[in-house]
Design a protein that fits this description.
The complex is a heterodimer.
Chain A: E1 4-9, E2 12-18, H1 24-33, E3 36-42, E4 47-53, E5 67-68, E6 70-71, E7 75-79, E8 84-93, E9 104-110, H2 114-127, E10 130-136
Antiparallel strand pairs in A: 1-2, 1-10, 2-9, 3-4, 3-10, 4-8, 5-9, 6-8, 7-8, 7-9
Chain B: E1 3-8, E2 11-17, H1 23-32, E3 35-41, E4 46-52, E5 65-66, E6 73-77, E7 82-90, E8 93-94, E9 97-98, E10 101-109, H2 111-124, E11 127-135
Antiparallel strand pairs in B: 1-2, 1-11, 2-10, 3-4, 3-11, 4-7, 5-10, 6-7, 6-10, 8-9
Amino acid sequence: MPKRIRLTLDGVEAVARLNEEAAPETVAKFWAALPVEETLRHVRWGGEAGYILIRKLADKTQPIENRISIYPPASIGFRPEHGEVAFSYGQAQARDHVRPATWACHLATIETNVDAFFAKVRATRAEGGKPIRLAREESR
Amino acid sequence: MKTVQIEVDGVVAEAELLEDRAPRTTAAFWDALPITTALTHTIWSGRACGFSVERLRSVDGLEHGVCSIYPGALVARPDAGEVLLSYGAAEYRTVLGVQYGTRIARLVRNQAAMLAVLERMHDEGDKTITIKRAGG
């Protein structure tokens, strides 16, 4: 059975399926780090997405599995060099102040309550950071 | 030298217009003042916040084009009717990549306090900006 995580963003819940077959090492490290509680903020370089930093997952030597640069809508991207987890609600790409385009791992895809969850992500641009919790779905 | 007063979230700073480098764009900006409008954090250009100035759309082309937006610099994109004000590492970018903009002004008084307010917008969200003529 695929691994799934439950996301709770400012009271709105959604479930995402982890891309374990395509990104086994990344998913294993991410799974081991859960649960995570952080503040989700809007990205400043990459377009229509919110992000959190999981600093204990930051690893500049970790290969990027299941590579993407443009984030598909409803995707969760992961950049190991920063421990950055990005939640894309529209046109978005892995970028930063040095690189106008780079790579990220397509870590997961949100399957439930997509519209309500990403409305909350979008709102962080105008309203500022919001609390988010990521937990293993099996733990509920 | 024309100067403008900029107020965000109770912090007031002053900027001088770079008329010699960008005479057409700064003239259109000056004519648009005073303005009070929404100030929003950029999502493509890094550590910068932007606001709309529709009157800039009357300016044809760029002057004194730059890509990097240094802290305290105001850079306009006339075809978008937009001005960005940077508080850190920033570059004029859109969904399509790096773009040029016209540098129209730079903060010359109370810069540190203004940049601190802009940086807080990453956590706090949108604010309102008011710009009016100060001197010149």
